[in-house]
């Protein structure tokens, strides 16, 4: 059976990396393993057209996981693939910094193999949605078939999580979502996360949309939703 997806795994500890790689391969994934940053960049250059998702440890030699994430987000082929930080660092600031770099998820070590697999499957499932229709509010268009966002005629490059966030607002334009509701929607996992996680994703999304980012409104004391003053709902 041909592997359904290819995962880039960057982990400097050889034994945990081998265990996770073997486990994913047993579940029909192909895994490209790098134990240090320069090797990871070589794999990105060689297999860019085949990589579907990256799992990155922050603390790897030579080129760290943060810089690898930056390279992925600036890569012409890989810029929209899901990125997961899998790392022993578990402070709030580390999670926020990773999300600001464009990561979609953050799993602290130690993590079970099944948990990592579940997070991978969740993010990849968002990349392969069932067919839907175009949604439009003003000059902002959402192609729910291709999972793409356009402002006027310009395609806005989004991460998997950023797309899931804007799709949530577009599909329920009359609803204001609390941070907890948004977290449950974008993670699909029962795990401890910080409230600022949502704020970071919304901030990144607004920045990418430019002036059109005003379509996402902060409802103080409640959460986020579409700006009803700008869209007809």
Defining key terms:
five-stranded parallel sheet; Arc Repressor Mutant, subunit A; alpha/beta; 8 helices; 233 residues; Rossmann fold; four-stranded antiparallel sheet; 11 strands; 2 domains
Summarize the structure.
GO terms for molecular function: phosphorelay response regulator activity; transcription cis-regulatory region binding. This protein has 233 residues and is of the alpha/beta class. It has eight helices and eleven strands.
CATH class of the largest domain: Alpha Beta
- Strand portion: 15-25%
Give the full name of the CATH homologous superfamily of the largest domain.
Response regulator
CATH topology of the largest domain: Rossmann fold
Count of individual beta strands: 11
First-to-last CA distance: 47 Å
CATH architecture of the largest domain: 3-Layer(aba) Sandwich
Report what the structure shows.
This protein is of the alpha/beta class. The chain folds into two domains: 5-127, Rossmann fold (3-Layer(aba) Sandwich), CATH 3.40.50; 134-226, Winged helix-like DNA-binding domain superfamily/Winged helix DNA-binding domain (Arc Repressor Mutant, subunit A). Helix content is 39%, strand content 21%. It contains eight helices and eleven strands. The strands form three sheets. A five-stranded parallel beta sheet has the order 2-1-3-4-5, sandwiched between helices. It has a four-stranded antiparallel beta sheet with strand order 6-7-8-9, with helices on one face. α3 (65-73) links the parallel β3 (53-56) and β4. The radius of gyration is 18 Å and the shape is globular.
């Amino acid at each position: 059976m041909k592997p359904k997806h290819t995962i880039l795994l960057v982990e400097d500890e050889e034994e945990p990396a081998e265990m996770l790689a073997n486990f994913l391969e047993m579940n029909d994934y192909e895994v490209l393993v790098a134990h240090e940053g320069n090797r990871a960049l070589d794999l990105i250059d060689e297999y860019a057209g085949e990589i579907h998702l990256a799992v990155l440890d922050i603390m790897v030699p030579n080129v760290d996981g943060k810089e690898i994430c930056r390279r992925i987000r600036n890569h012409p082929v890989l810029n929209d693939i899901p990125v997961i930080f899998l790392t022993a660092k578990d402070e709030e600031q580390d999670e926020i910094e990773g999300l600001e770099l464009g990561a979609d998820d953050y799993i602290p070590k130690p993590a079970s193999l099944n948990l990592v697999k579940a997070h991978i499957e969740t993010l990849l499932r968002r990349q392969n949605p069932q067919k839907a229709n175009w949604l439009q509010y003003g000059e902002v268009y959402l192609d729910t078939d291709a999972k793409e966002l356009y402002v006027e005629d310009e395609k806005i490059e989004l991460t998997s999580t950023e797309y899931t966030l804007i799709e949530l607002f577009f599909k329920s334009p009359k609803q204001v979502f609390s941070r907890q509701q948004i977290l449950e929607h974008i993670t699909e996992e029962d795990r401890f996360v910080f409230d600022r996680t949502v704020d970071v994703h919304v901030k990144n999304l607004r920045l990418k949309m430019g002036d059109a980012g005003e379509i996402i409104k902060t409802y103080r004391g409640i959460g986020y939703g579409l700006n009803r003053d700008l869209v007809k709902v």
